[in-house]
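Protein Record: Sequence and Backbone Structure Tokens
======================================================
Tokens: labelled as protein backbone structure tokens, with as many entries as the chain has residues.
Task: work out the structure tokens from the sequence, keeping to the layout shown below.
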Amino acid sequence: MLATQWLNNARDIMTRIEETQVENIRKAAEVMADTIECGRWVHTFGCGHATIPIEEMYPRIGGFVGFHPMIELPLTFFTRITGEMGVHQFLFLERVEGYGVEIMKGYDFDTRDTMWLFSHTGINNVNIDIAIEARKKGMKVVVFGSAAEAKGKETRHSCGKTIFDLADIVVDTFAPLQDASVTLKNHQDKIGPVSTMAFITCVWMTITTVAEILADRGVKLYIHPSHNVPGDTTSRERLDGCLSEYKKRITGV
């Protein structure tokens, strides 16, 4: 069954992450914990399906304040397929050198911040722009993506580097370069991509480690609660506290 082939492929990737990336995940988590402890931001950015791990981590139940999603709507292509903000435009925009520089102008940054980037292949210009600008501003750059698979691929950026080359810390997600992992008879292209599952696995391994580090340091976390637990009469109050803390940090007040 193709369903079990995909499931086995996904399990194999999760196993490889567990066997080889725990140390790098810990390094990334320590950097992020330092950032959050001092009241600053772990900024998160990606394009296309690499926005999914960003939306997964915050805001959501079990996530906590400290992660700042930078999602550029024209770089998602999920609102439209053709027509306005379609796939053709997305594929063009993510390769436009300089676009990331303009995106960075819309936010305030600090040397204590961390930039957390998601890119499967690491060769497209917007992500590389963001990494370069983050480094210029003194931030640590953490990159999650299929680093080993992408090794040797030529960057599209004039700097001559991929996003992995620009990272302080890399966590390899091990998704195959073409992403899809299951062969389908009578077809050239495979089905069953696994990069999103790999990203999400690494995200929650990282965030749970960040939380563990901060809890061990005695730092209070503003964790988004579930709103659906019978008998929990303070969930809305706790959520309001999280959003108030987020607002305070984002406005700098």
Notes: The longest helix spans residues 195-216.
